[in-house]
Amino acid sequence: MFQIRIHGRGGQGVVTAAELIAIAAFKDGKIAQAFPYFGVERTGAPIEAYARLSDQVIQTRERVYNPDILIIVDSTLIGTLDMTSDCDRNTKIVINSAQDKKDIKINFPKENIFTIDATKIALEIFGKNLSNTVILGAFAKDTGLITLKGLEAAIREKFADKGKEIIEKNIKAIDKAYNN
């Protein structure tokens, strides 16, 4: 079983990102679950969401305490929260940042850190900072836990009511991140 924890702020699509990972994994033939962890936080407050992927039935329903993958949608949280305290040295971290991984101020093995400027891609494609789906393209490439095809299918399903233009922009965004 692979456990994924996603950090971001309320309103950045962290919960949607976890759901898209789970849907993509399901489309790829895996068993998956996704769920948020937050209280009465408001837009802009730090939140977490989780996903689990497995080839077997997932029994646990608790929070992800020791993630295999950590996704940080908002790099401004680095230094304000200790997001790596429950991670082991094998955890892979995917960060939305314009900085090179060697410049990221996080005490963790640099070979396990992957950065992508998801915000830049989001601004180019959407005209605003909707980086949650963008970072999933990098997640798919860097981890191999979901396929690009599965992620595209997840976007088509999850955003079906948002219209063709939104779907196509999101697919363009994940493709660009995947091939970055």
Search tags:
180 residues; alpha/beta; Pyruvate-ferredoxin Oxidoreductase, domain 3; six-stranded mixed beta sheet; 5 helices; 34% helix; globular
Can you offer a commentary on this structure?
Strands 2-3-1-4-5-6 form a 6-stranded mixed beta sheet. It is 34% helix and 21% strand. The chain has a single domain, classed as Pyruvate-ferredoxin oxidoreductase, PFOR, domain III (Pyruvate-ferredoxin Oxidoreductase, domain 3, 3-Layer(aba) Sandwich). It is of the alpha/beta class and 180 residues long. It is globular and about 40 Å long. Helix 1 (14-27) packs across helix 4 and helix 4 runs antiparallel to helix 5 (164-178).
How do you describe this structure in short?
It contains five helices and six strands; from the N terminus they run βαβββββαααα. The chain has helices spanning 14-27, 118-126, 132-143, 148-158, 164-178; strands at 2-9, 31-37, 46-54, 69-72, 92-96, 113-116.
